[in-house]
Amino acid sequence: MKFVLALLFVLAFVSSSFADDFVHVQGGSFLMGSPESENWRSDDELQHKVTLSDFFISRYEVTQSEYEALTGENPSTFKGSKLPVDSVTWLEAVKFCNARSESEGMTPAYRINGDSVTWDLSSESYRLPTEAEWEFACRAGTVTPFNLEHSIGADEANFYGHYPYEIEENYFSQHKLSTKPGIYRAETVQVGSFTPNKLGLYDMHGNVGEWCWDVYGAYSSQEQTNPTGLEAGTRRVNRGGGWNDFAKNMRSAYRAAAPQDRKLFNVGFRLVRGAIGTGAITSRAVQEVSGSGKKVLIAYFTWSGNTQGIAYEIQKQTGADIFEISPVNEYSADYNRVLREAQRDQRAQARPKLRGQVKDFADYDVIMLGYPNWWASIPMPIASFLEEYDFTGKIIMPFCSHGGGRFGQSLTAIAKLAPKAFIGEGLSVHYSGGSSLKSDVAKWLSKFNNAQ
C-alpha cells in the first residue's frame, strides 16, 4: 500500500518538463545538524533526528532566464541566462514561487500579507524547501561534512577555491590537506557545471546560497517530523554557501542567516513541491528599529590599517563619533603569526577582552561597524563588541576590508550575534579602497540616507 501511494504521488506530478527538472526525494529519517566532532562546526548545528515526507526538488538553482521570464526583472550581480539568479530577497523568492504556480494554473502555496507569509501545508504548488528538506536533499544519504564524502575541491564546486576545508589550521603546512587549494572564479557559473550529488542535484554546495522557508533559530533536541522552523524571528535561513565562501561554510550542516528583505550577491534559491500536512502556518520575520536613525557611531577593529582608513573616510563624510574596538591582548604585528592567531580564535569562538568602553552607547541609533574579513568571517573582537552592548532596535551598517572574498560569512555572524538589530546594506572595500574609496563611501552613505 505504501508503495502504491508513493507511485500515485509521483504520477500526480509527471510532465515532460517537470520530470526533467525536478527530482523525487523519498521521505525518511536522518540526523540533521553536525556531530560535535565535525571540524569548524557551529554551536547552532545541534544534531537531532528528523523525519520527512516525500517531496520534489529542482535539480538546479533558479536561473536568471527563469526568473526574468516570470518577473520581468534580473537583479543579479553577474549576468547570464544560465547563471543562477542572485540578489533576490527571501520575499521575492516566495513571490516567484507563487508566480510559477499561477503560470501553470495552480493555486499558490503562499499567501503574502506584508511581512507575514502563510503557507498552505497541503499545497502541491511551488515553494521554498524547509531547512530540513534542504539538508536532507543535500546530504543524499551522507553523514560527512560534504555530500561528496570527501573534502570538496574547486573542480567539484564553485567557491573560494583557494581555501578548501581545514585550510585555516594548515595554511603553512598544506601537505596535510586532503584537498589542496584550487581556482577562485570570483563569480557565479552556469548551473549544472559540476557533478551532481547522489540524488542528481547540482550545486548544493557553492555557486549561490539558497533561501529556505525557515525563520532562523535554535534547533530542538527532540525528534521532529516535517519541521518548519520558528513562527517569528528576525532572520531567514539560507544554505549551501556561495561563490565567495570558504569550504567550511559550505558544509551540509552550515546555517547562514539574513533578514528576509535583504538582497545578497551570493544568495539565490531553488524550488520544491510537495504537501507536508494539513492546515496552514503563518511565519513572520521582521526587524523593528526603535531609534531615530540620526545619532551615529562608527565602531571599527583594524589590524593593517585598511579598515581604519575606511572608518576615517566615513567619519570625514558624516561627522559621526568614532570608537576603535581594541583587544586588551593585541594580535601580533607579524602577518604570518596573526593568520594563525585569527583562525585559532575563530575556531575556539573566543571572546577577547576589549579595551575601553563606548560612552552612552544607548543614545546611538546607528552603529557603522567595521572590520577586516578574517578567514571569511568577523574577527573575534567584533564578536566581543556585539555581545558587550545591547543592540536591540539599533541599525547596524557593516563595512569591511577584504582581499577578494567580500563579506564572506561575516554578515551571517553579525546577524546571529545581534538578532534584535536591523542590519542595513554593507560596504565591502578591496584592501584600502584606493582612489575610489571616497566615492564608494559616498554612494554607500547615500543609499543609507535615502532608505531612512
What does this structure look like?
By secondary structure, the protein is α/β, with parallel strands linked by helices. The chain folds into 2 domains: 2-285, paralog of FGE (formylglycine-generating enzyme), CATH 3.90.1580.10; 296-451, Rossmann fold (3-Layer(aba) Sandwich). 23% of the residues lie in helices and 20% in strands. The chain contains 10 helices and 22 strands. It has helices at 2-11, 16-21, 64-71, 90-103, 131-139, 306-318, 335-348, 380-388, 410-417, 437-451; strands at 22-25, 28-32, 48-52, 55-58, 110-113, 116-120, 209-215, 224-225, 232-233, 236-239, 256-258, 267-268, 272-273, 280-285, 296-300, 321-324, 326-327, 354-355, 366-372, 395-402, 422-423, 427-430. The strands form 6 sheets. Strands 15, 16, 19, 20, 21 and 22 form a 6-stranded parallel β-sheet that branches. Helix 6 crosses helix 10 (437-451). The N and C termini lie far apart (59 Å).
* Count of strand segments: 22
| Rg over alpha carbons | 22 Å
Strand content: 15-25%
Give the CA-CA distance, first to last residue. Answer: 59 Å
Instruction: Return the average pLDDT rounded to an integer.
Output: 94
